[in-house]
User: What shape does this take?
Amino acid sequence: MATFQHPLSALTADEILLCSKLIRANFESPQSLRFKGISLQEPSKEDVSLFELSGVVPARRAWINYYIAGTRFFYESIANLGERGVESNVMVPAGLHGPTDDNEILQVEKLTLADPGVQEEIKKLELPPSAVVVCDPWIWGADAADEDERKYQCYMYMRAARNSGHLDSNHYAHPLSFSPVFDTVTMRVTRIEHVPTGGDFETKPTGPARITEPNEYIPELNDLRIDLKPLVITQPQGASFIHEGDVLKWQKWSFRLTFNYREGMVLHQVSYDGRPLFYRISLSDMSVPYGDPRPPVHKKQAFDLGDTGAGIMANNLKLGCDCLGAIAYVDGLIADEEGRPLKKQNAVCIHEQDAGLLWKHTNYRTQRAALVRKRELVVQSIITVSNYEYILAFIFDQAGELAYEVRATGILSTQPIDPGVSVPWGTVVHDGVLAAYHQHILSLRIDPEMDGEHRNSLVYEETAPMPLSPETNPHGNGYVSRRQVVKTSGGYDLNSKQNRVYMIESSSKVNPVNGQKTAYKIHVPAFQPLLAQDDSFHYKRADFADHSIYVTRFRENELFAGGQYTNQNKQTTGVRKWSARKDSVQDEDIVVWVQFGLQHVPRCEDFPVMPAEIIKVALKPVNFFTRNPAVDVPPSSQESNQSTLIRARRMQAELSHARVGAEAVMSWTRF
Amino acid sequence: MATFQHPLSALTADEILLCSKLIRANFESPQSLRFKGISLQEPSKEDVSLFELSGVVPARRAWINYYIAGTRFFYESIANLGERGVESNVMVPAGLHGPTDDNEILQVEKLTLADPGVQEEIKKLELPPSAVVVCDPWIWGADAADEDERKYQCYMYMRAARNSGHLDSNHYAHPLSFSPVFDTVTMRVTRIEHVPTGGDFETKPTGPARITEPNEYIPELNDLRIDLKPLVITQPQGASFIHEGDVLKWQKWSFRLTFNYREGMVLHQVSYDGRPLFYRISLSDMSVPYGDPRPPVHKKQAFDLGDTGAGIMANNLKLGCDCLGAIAYVDGLIADEEGRPLKKQNAVCIHEQDAGLLWKHTNYRTQRAALVRKRELVVQSIITVSNYEYILAFIFDQAGELAYEVRATGILSTQPIDPGVSVPWGTVVHDGVLAAYHQHILSLRIDPEMDGEHRNSLVYEETAPMPLSPETNPHGNGYVSRRQVVKTSGGYDLNSKQNRVYMIESSSKVNPVNGQKTAYKIHVPAFQPLLAQDDSFHYKRADFADHSIYVTRFRENELFAGGQYTNQNKQTTGVRKWSARKDSVQDEDIVVWVQFGLQHVPRCEDFPVMPAEIIKVALKPVNFFTRNPAVDVPPSSQESNQSTLIRARRMQAELSHARVGAEAVMSWTRF
Assistant: This one.
């Protein structure tokens, strides 16, 4: 059996196989099981510390999540892989459900389309014979307190009549109004609902479809522009990073990169120049609530990590497409629904990019310019969640900054609307197509170990005017900063008027230059918090969507801001609940949850595919270093950059004249 | 005489020479003049329209600003170049002063260092014989209501004792406490002040200097990292843009690029796919107020455009340093203090860059990925303002977005501080070095002609929850957007809680898909407004620094948010005053002023040179197009991108095992 490399390394293929074998052996009689997740149960921080210090290998455990197929019996198990035994196997309480999986969605789609009742509805559309109807199964959401079946709400579309034969024709441009409900225990359509198509809550029975113009995104169905010249990025001496095992090293940074079915990329033991910064950092959760109040679409609220999984949905990235330059790819290893290892090929790509100037200064006396360019290391994964895409990337720079960037792209989830109708909760983006307003609210989980200390504090700094005073502020220009320690776990907000900036401080390490505690600050753009009412399911489920910052005291197994099980969950089971313990968080082992996102009021420009909206959270040193850590980056030079001078097709009359007429003053006249 | 190309083209060399000649001829007896600015007096929009429609060339006029040298007599003139005559010549009222110029700063520095009183102070420092003292003349600011001399406050430094012989040694790491005041009429030091070095307002007489360690930014005085491999960007088929005369065309964009001494780059007649968007757009002003309340540094408040000039300070950009790839350079033409044309070589660079993915979608059924990369056109200028640098760029993308990016870098303006002392308005960034808190507040002036209409409106959209109601919002998830037209000129704010987004709308053009008025929205990050008290000079001078958005009705000669003359100005003379006219701005010829910036609480990491802080304002179409305008961008392909696969130095045991063990499940099992 291949051995793992480090206690934090992801499960190997053999280990995944062993997990499903152990679970199967746990049953007295053979059972058909549907696995929903198999991943490493990370050892405790103490055990990892002990391993690092003295090589003591902690027990190797796995976390396993599965259904008895065709039932609502859903289990969570811990297996001890060294001892080849199941240590615990607990049925998940009623009201909590497992996530979907890729094959399940394909299965639901196929069975729904084959359903006689659905076929009956399709007939009522009176479509031309070549027409193709498509089904997008959607995660159910939450509707009533007493419901406990795991279900899908299926949204129906057709391909453009003209492009029916094209498998990748954009069906989101042709939404239909009937919507089957699918039950995952019986694997059947249980009823057919209708989406309102007018300006109110009323629904209409299915009738003949109106044939509308296509709106396609694939290149062969568009006239492409022809005036874009290639731009080629090469690294003749290779990449500057080293990747060995899980460890990536680049420009004084070092970290472990692993991958699991739920979070996708996870970083551990992130350090700069040998000084630890973060023990663990990952995208923890995401909620996408929609604003159309009308059933059945009122339930739409995707939790793309908890309901499906960023690892499961990771794209197979292609050389020269998803990134440019000298690129390394990392495969991910997850379990399929049978509990077999499934390789997610090229799930993560690693490359460097140039990001403009990092710093420049010209001494105006000597005209000597010193400048360096900003090189970045990008560790990227792209996920497709049905209609939508997220491009997720950790970006490291040479000045000690670690950023997390999200690009939101893909296709709007659309619904039908009658011609001439408009509604205040959505935008008509194509003939007969409504794109409802929605929010994207993400949560980045940061488990710090600032400057090597397990105990850290979250503080915030504000800048405020000094009161006018003849003694202390006679001219009224004075202002000062104030730091406040966050003492209790909870949700906290930004305040741009006060320029509030949150920072993670070490407990006792100080900067020798100014005596400030060494720290990293969190640059996070303000977002509009969740708009749903406090007693709505939307609000209760999106545990993290109401504050830019949450801080909790570390506890094992508190990894996902919306709770372990988000699918159809109706309660607060995540960070809002954990932070309500009101733990003291000053100089403690803390976890900081950073929320950020987008209010998406769709525009026509977002259809048929959306230009990426870019959001970025940046973690930057604040008196962590004694000086600019990038002062030692080699200068930018033409020798290494090999740029090309373009002679502009410029009418030169005026400037060549200037060259003659002003020869004497071409350089600065010195006094 | 070389003729200009277009009524909006910048003055030619001959025209600049003609201007100074006409002014000189205006005086009965020869006068020694010091020119402060000569630039095009732009023709009215009506005249430009007439020219575009029927070729009628409007009168060619220049705006000229000059002193009678060695006096406080300061004039503003308009010359008619076609008629070769001065149309107006007005003395600028008392209290308003002209900007500095590069030669004046060098002159002030030299005269100050030669001043006997200053030499006396230097002696008191008891420096080693090799020591070198450096003088940074600073724009005076404003101190008292009755002062009317144009002055400099000089801040004094020395080079590191160890690096005295190095002309580019970083003197900002060694600030001195005496500070000469220089008068520009007599061109003399009039008195010597002292900067407090303790925690209070007290100043001390000059005594022996403490010799401290250097903190250098230039590469030869640092140990450089050696593990950064080259990254080369080439465009084998050349650049995708065309530059003819002042006109730049790229990826359906078209605009005129000109350059003047004050604003540097100015764009006119910006259109996409033949549809006009903006008549004129430029960086209009900038204010950098400091928070240390103690004289003499309480006055520090730089207006880098109005007090000096973004054109005057533009760097000579170097191939393969300031940008990469296939690069075109544009020279700027300004006037020197003698009224002669001065070529600012390579003042603007133009190049394309790759900016990651623009959009992507994978059909999960077919696994077909469609994706395009985001190519951008960057039009960049870099300015050095004494210690500090701004990297300024207009960035165009293929989806109709125009962004304005500012990178703030360079060296902190420092002052001395005694060992062991800390103050709440600054950070100790090096032994004996205090960097006071300061704000950078910039103003981007946008004169729109949305969708070809001269009359536009500023509107804002907010998203807000629907009240809970059994009829209209039974599940509490509903939310709606509301648009509000800004009816009156004034200053307006952001509101992230309501997700307030400002948009510039055409008057009557509607999007055929949804009937919305065609518009562009303004993405501007929130900033902390000016912190100085309302009755301070800081506040009165920084006319624009209190609101994210100002809107005014267009009037000729209202170009600069802080007013025409910012140097030592003590009154509100800019956009705050103009907007107080309370003009109706609905469906009018409006100007939108977008403010953005940084609260800069320095960190050790910002010294000896600051990693660029990046701020960006983006103008994005909102229902301006009927669909994503970038849907026709050719797909990203390895054929054109030619990326290289890096084989990770990875311990392959685990994954090669997975490949064998899981061969059967390497691709998705289909149901």
